[in-house]
Amino acid sequence: MTVEDTRAPERIAPPRPPLPVDDTGGERRRRAGRIIGPTATYVVCVIAALVAIGPFLWMLSSSFKEPGDVISLTPHLLPNPFTLDNYAYLINNGVLPFIRFLGNSAYITVLVIIGRLMVCALGAYGFARLQFRGRDAAFGLLLASLMIPDMLMVLPLYSAYVKAGLIDTHFPLIIPPIVANTFGTFLLRQFFMTIPKEYDEAALVDGASHFRIFVSIILPLSKPALATLAVLTFVNVWNDFFGPLVYLSDVNKFTVPVGLAFFQTQDSTQYGPLMAGATLAIIPTVLVFVFAQKYFTRGISMTGIK
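Structure tokens predicted for Carbohydrate ABC transporter permease:
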């Protein structure tokens, strides 16, 4: 046994407990960050909302003002005095009763929404649920049509409508938006692809046809996507100014956007009736979005590329 072996083993001192650290300042900063961050977000959102809604509040207020107060050098938000003369002039004494413009826009918009939902849903079902030769190539060709500018088709369509005797009718404003809507077909097709195909297989085993599957299974499960397409179609058709301006010449057939142009001429602008008409024109859009908001937001969030 050597000398090294007879030495007592060295004693290892136990580790000392860490000294307490005063982290009060760091905790306060973290708490302040958790409060300041969301508060700043809400403040920015409120400011952005006020900026966005400001023109609409000014339009609504101006519709109840006297004509001279609308363009006053000292503008004020609240009408003083408050008057309904602009709405009375708009409905009773305008270039044409504004109610007729609203009726024409509503008639065209409702027909386009119903027709577009039917045509796009059927097309989307075929591209999403049926298997046939050349399906993907046909869908790619359909998407390629989105690259064609709308303005490029105005002259050929106008010439065709002239030869068919359809100018100065509502036909060019109803049928083409129904049958030529690639985006609607694409939107519904992407949503249909998220529905499990096991539903189709189970229905086929039970003897259901594809039309029965489409009506009883696919459409009830696709309410968010259908509502999204309906809202987008409503906004697009209701606010369309170019189409009625090109294809219509009879004042009795004009829609709301073209009717509002009557109050703005080269020499002067009737700001009071114009603001009243714009207020009446925006009410249906607001109502549609309010009642369809739940389905609209779900449709946007659930529709994706599969």
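The chain has a mean pLDDT of 81.
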